[in-house]
């Protein structure tokens, strides 16, 4: 968002006049994104209307008007965002309030059909109500909470607060606040694999936790003073107890329940109470076979002997690296101290020796490990599943993991020391990025951020919506700080323009020219070669430019072109990159200088690794938006390096006066959702990657076939997909041969080719949900990397 802040401020001067806020939405009336209308509470502390993320995902929502990041407290359609154009909320003649998408399908509606609802209004409490002419409330948003409870909003029987799945999104996740059947206000993990209560502390009975279970009224409420209390005698005070402060009670995506207070002067939130002080006490934080550990910050790791299923989603947990049947023969036990898995006890034996406990586990084929608590005479817990793993300095005992004797595992250093593999340091995050308080167990997952390429594309719509808000936050933009993520400190630096002129010999040798600018070759004083990119129409204030550059400059991966520095002087905006020797992939595929099989496979794998790093491991989820052979450079060992990532944030091809085109990327590599007006996610890169992979296999550029008509775009891909399906189904083993580049003259690995073709085709699925993640592509390709068949071909690597 930050990169377009300047734009927004500038342009909102023209548009803020069009934004209409009103106190009542009358029966028969409606609001839409385009209409730029909002309902505000009489004291203006809450606003209700369409809230957008990315280019094209909108929610009918209520948010705090004066919080810097427009904190959303309620959404009507949290799991089903609607389109920016053509979606509307209206109060129909029959009295129902209805949210419809562009195709007029009903996404959400109230249960007020055939009532005399006359208008919707937003109360000062943040409650959206439907009233009849006499002023009776017929429906209220307070009755259907999402993840937040506002002061005076009552959590009752059968209602739940459900945390969002990840930070920055609204979709429902697995952590719930609700009243259990024992009348106790509880936090529970409720995922497909596991349901496990973690607050109040399940190690004690409810009375020890200061609760009772005999009051069946099941009510909880946060009052205006900041006192949270419930019918089971639970009480907590916000640390800033008193009137006049805006607060909210939210169950966060990390499973913790917190009271936040709004600081008037900055519009930021501070935590004034939280239910869980040790983040690893949240159950299910790391999925099955995962363990939540403290390494400067809480994070997830896999149980030794297990490996992660999906690095971007720890809910998916870890899977064994060994064949489970081996647990029936010779086994060994690996001790992890001060660690336990909560629940899943096959047996519990008090007064048991460690040896006897181990024997019990060894003999039971269902046993995956056991916990041994050392207090008293020793307690033995035999586990049939390794769920809810956590490390806790106060845990009096160890867990012993059962592993086949043949499996070699080493204990992660985290279990006896505080060393970590990641260098951790404080970094500055641009405004508009994750907020100050947010952190927790999903350090690996980081932040879900829709790409800026999308944000830029939809600029017009977003800024109309955000115009007012940005005006509010224009003054004093404080930066928030979030500690600890993997980065290697660099020699990243600022150049001045004269210096770059000298380096590039007055921009003499042009290396290439693209949508975002022209690239020149240069040579630094220490003889390092560089590629200097002069950005085209940059319509951006310097501080936003610097913030973006700071982010890109920190991204470091062997398969991504490294940025060494930048220049921002007057209207000049230049980027200085490492020089990559061997030109781009297209130069090595579509002409006589083509790559051999082993190198093509290495390029496919390296590119996947680079994209996976952008998508999953970077601080911000960066979407490239323009994956194509021209943007994949090859170094002198023909290892791929992806160029031009993060640039969608920086350059703008269309001037402010021209018509704004939403669509980014290059024809032929562009996912169908661009044309379909669907939300843009990392899956657009997966699509582009799929096309690149298929082109590498065939050695033919598909995009040559692409004519202006969008429908024709997929034809060569569709044909290929049909061919493969047909031939594979008929058991025709020669199908691989018929697809792979004939210029290779059969010199390739059949298994690798089959795998790559399948990956390529799944990546170009029209339904983006069917496309794999980049992390899973990397995994599949790595499994197939050491193909013996290919060894024979080593000498024939480059066929020139
Ligand atoms: C049960 O809880 C409600 C709400 O907190 C309270 O008003 C009521 O007095 C309680 N009943 C008993 C028997 O404690
Ligand atoms: C919260 O504050 C109220 C009012 O000052 C006090 O009566 C109550 O004991 C406090 N509760 C807790 C749990 O601190
Ligand atoms: C914050 O602002 C509100 C409304 O402007 C005001 O009523 C309240 O007193 C302020 N609170 C503080 C702590 O300044
Ligand atoms: C595991 O090992 C058993 C026995 O050796 C074998 O039958 C089975 O197919 C193996 N399973 C997998 C998934 O490799
Ligand atoms: C534990 O074992 C000791 C010694 O064997 C015995 O005296 C004690 O009664 C046992 N306690 C329980 C709870 O079984
Ligand atoms: C970790 O523990 C192992 C064995 O218990 C020991 O050899 C090693 O030195 C320890 N490492 C650290 C960093 O303490």
TrEMBL record:
Localization per Swiss-Prot or TrEMBL: Membrane
Domain (Bulb-type lectin) ranges: 30-145
Keyword annotations of the record: ATP-binding, Disulfide bond, EGF-like domain, Glycoprotein, Kinase, Membrane, Nucleotide-binding, Receptor, Serine/threonine-protein kinase, Signal, Transferase, Transmembrane, Transmembrane helix
Segments forming domain Protein kinase: 505-782
Catalytic activity: L-threonyl-[protein] + ATP = O-phospho-L-threonyl-[protein] + ADP + H(+); L-seryl-[protein] + ATP = O-phospho-L-seryl-[protein] + ADP + H(+)
Annotated membrane topology: Single-pass type I membrane protein
Enzyme Commission number, as recorded: 2.7.11.1
Listed GO biological process terms: recognition of pollen
Domain of life (superkingdom): Eukaryota
GO cellular component: membrane
Signal peptide, first to last residue: 1-19
Positions of transmembrane segments: 446-466
GO molecular function list: ATP binding; protein serine/threonine kinase activity
Binding residue positions for ATP: 533
Main location: membrane
Family stated for the protein in its record: Belongs to the protein kinase superfamily. Ser/Thr protein kinase family.
Identification of the protein by name: Receptor-like serine/threonine-protein kinase
Natural source organism: Fraxinus pennsylvanica
